[in-house]
Amino acid sequence: VASGNEIQYRIIATDSANNVTRLPTSGFLSIPVFEFAAPAEQYINNFNTTTTDFAGNFFSVAQPGGFTNGAIHTAHPYPVGFGISSTSNFTYTLKKKITVSASNPYIVFDEIAVVETIGIAPKDFVLVEASEDNGQTWLPLVNNYAAGAQSLWKQAFDNNTTPGENLYRSRLIKITDNTALVAGDVIVVRFRLFSDAAINSWGWAIDNLSIQGPITGLPESVLADQLMVYPNPVRDEGVSIDFSLPDLTSVQIQIVNAQGQAVLSEDARGLNGTFKRSYATAGWADGMYLVRLQTDQGQVVRKVVKIR
């Protein structure tokens, strides 16, 4: 079958009593036949116009009621798992390959993921993945997550309410956090929703996707996710601070005690996306400290406790 065509199919099962089940219940599943485009340095889309850049079932670019702009949406609600294992993976694959950047290997997007969860632990889940072999095998770019990842998503799941745009939250993913991927690799990116046969929920929406594009004005919650302060609590062995952001060239760091007195200040420049430091803590009194990082993207604060 030539590239550019599409195969459509459905499954119909009839038992001895002439009961009929159809999958899907209406319409057809589709398999587009395509060749991946030549590798690009970046991909940016706000999904406000129709696009044919993705392939998959139970996903589409749409504008449901309550939303003022288009975005990638799963079916609402998404289907429960089906088949022999009673589980299903619904995917949406970008048909353009990406060459992993050495200086900006980041994916950022806004999302709503009201997907089945137990407490804060995913049951059904969503995931962003990459492949180096045209989709034969897939590598996770982030740990799987569901409605429990955000309190408002969890509330919408628990109350079975339909979310709106106010539930969008930003996510920042560093491609090379998966150490199997390095600068220069050529990858395919996909979004995946896993569903079991128990219950389902509203689903997943993804907007303002930027793969290795310019990133500005990240929310504080996203900045906070990039800051690691460890160990915490800390003893006299010292504290380490790791912070990564696209285009990070300078950081002003200050650590203050509970009385607001600075025990450490540093203005670090000439960075290449990553700030890593270890500081001595033997002279610190026991108690709580605030680690403050100021960047061009904004400020992030983290608490750390010193104990004997």
Descriptive report:
The protein is built from two helices and 26 strands. Strand 2 and strand 3 form a beta hairpin. It is elongated and about 80 Å long. The protein has three domains: about 1-35, no CATH class; about 35-210, Sandwich (Jelly Rolls); about 225-305, Sandwich (Immunoglobulin-like). It has about 300 residues and is mainly β.
Spell out the key features of this protein.
5% helix, 308 residues, Immunoglobulin-like, mainly beta, Jelly Rolls, elongated, 7-stranded mixed sheet, 46% strand, 6-stranded antiparallel sheet, 2 helices, single chain
Please render the helix and strand layout as text.
Blueprint: E1 6-9, E2 11-14, E3 20-23, E4 29-32, E5 37-40, E6 43-45, E7 54-55, E8 59-62, E9 71-74, E10 88-94, E11 96-99, E12 106-114, E13 117-118, E14 121-122, E15 125-131, E16 139-140, H1 151-159, E17 169-174, E18 186-195, E19 203-211, H2 220-225, E20 227-230, E21 239-244, E22 250-257, E23 262-269, E24 274-279, E25 287-295, E26 298-306
Parallel strand pairs: 5-11
Antiparallel strand pairs: 1-4, 2-3, 6-19, 7-10, 8-9, 9-19, 10-18, 11-18, 12-17, 12-19, 13-14, 15-16, 15-18, 20-21, 21-24, 22-23, 22-25, 25-26
